[in-house]
Design a protein that fits this description.
Elements: E1 2-6, H1 15-22, E2 28-31, H2 50-58, E3 62-66, H3 67-72, E4 84-87, H4 89-98, E5 101-105
Parallel strand pairs: 1-2, 1-5, 2-3, 3-4
Length: about 110
């Protein structure tokens, strides 16, 4: 499993789109820092990547957001696309330990 981390907003950077073009089934995508804006659902300002996220999720790609970064930006669980799970720092470490490699997108 490859862990992809994205720390830039999908609204002003192509990092999330670049990541989604490479992500494969069984990979994990973790949005951190301003990257968490890429997880917003349509009622919160849908990104162009919502359909890609939905398709990848259906094929086994796992999606996460760092809960502390969501909270710091006033983003609650109900504002997230259904594909996303929240995780804490310990979960981030567990994902990193599980991964064969980590790709940071910025």
């Amino acid at each position: 499993m490859l862990l992809h981390t994205v720390n830039k907003s999908a609204f002003d950077n192509s990092a999330l789109g670049d990541c989604l073009r490479i992500a494969a089934p069984n990979d994990a995508v973790l949005l951190i820092e301003n990257g968490v804006y890429g997880a917003l659902n349509s009622s919160q300002g849908e990104t162009d990547y919502s359909q890609s996220i939905k398709q990848l999720s259906a094929n086994g790609t796992r999606f996460y957001v760092l809960k502390a970064d969501c909270e710091a930006r006033g983003i609650g669980d109900s504002a997230l696309l259904p594909a996303f799970q929240t995780t804490d720092d310990a979960g981030f470490v567990a994902l990193a330990a599980e991964a064969s490699a980590i790709q940071s997108w910025y």
